[in-house]
Amino acid sequence: MLAETKARSQLPALPCDCVLAFGIPTDEEDFETSIKDPKRDYSKHYLAGWGQYRRNFVSQVEDYTRRYEALGVHVIRGLQSSEIPALFTIGSVVTLFTHWTVAGVEFCDGILSLPTLVEAVPCDFSGVLDLCVCHPDDLAALLLRDRPLCTIRYLSNKASPLFWLGFYAALYELLALRRGRTYSEELTELAIQLRHTGEGRPR
């Protein structure tokens, strides 16, 4: 009964408790759709088109996704803004792997403003929301104010998407190996190790 009274973020986490959702394109069809969509931004930074995007990002997403799923992680591709609330029914740890713009956070149906994104997070969610987006501070502040039961995690490291794909692979592997630890404990320890080895680059 005691464990039931704890916030889900305080309970030990396994990879099967984790959801990683991509709000940016992870296949050719969505990439081409996003290029033509004035409400989307991330793909337009790849000026050489799909070939460059596939080589530099999607091929790595496919490799890492296989690793994540083999450990039990729930991987969601092509995340639409309407699908965000359902993520919090799947696991106790939700990671949004997507793109930030001055207008908000990108999903596969456009840019969602920060207040609207906060509204998509259930008020009673007491797990971890991990923000793998650039410049997460304003979003984190709104979530801390309006979703006080939710534990917000993010790392102030400016790094490439490939760095983050590898980071989460290492994090999920640690959760699988060292059972009995919370997600936040493993994330913090891994981040400290990376800083000591010079892998993380400060913002």
Describe the 3D structure.
The chain has 203 residues and is of the alpha/beta class. The protein has one domain (2-197): Rossmann fold. The chain has helices at residues 2-5, 28-36, 50-71, 84-87, 114-120, 137-146, 161-177, 183-197, and strands at 18-22, 74-76, 93-97, 100-101, 104-107, 110-112, 128-132, 151-153. The chain has a five-stranded parallel sheet, with helices on both faces. The longest helix is centred in the first third of the chain and has 22 residues, at 50-71. The chain is globular, with a radius of gyration of 16 Å. The model is unreliable at 199-203 (pLDDT under 50).
Helix content range of the residues, please?
Answer: 40-55%
Low-confidence stretches: 199-203
Structural class comes to: alpha/beta
Radius of gyration: 16 Å
What characteristic shape results from the CA principal axes?
globular
Order of helices and strands: HEHHEHEEEEHEHEHH
Number of domains: 1
Trace the largest sheet across and list its strands.
Answer: 2-1-3-7-8
Strand content: 5-15%
Multimeric status of the protein:
single chain
Distance between the termini: 42 Å
What is the overall number of helices? 8
The chain-level mean pLDDT equals: 92
Count of distinct strands: 8
CATH topology: Rossmann fold
- Assign the CATH class: Alpha Beta
CATH A-level architecture: 3-Layer(aba) Sandwich
The biggest beta sheet is recorded as: 5 strands, parallel
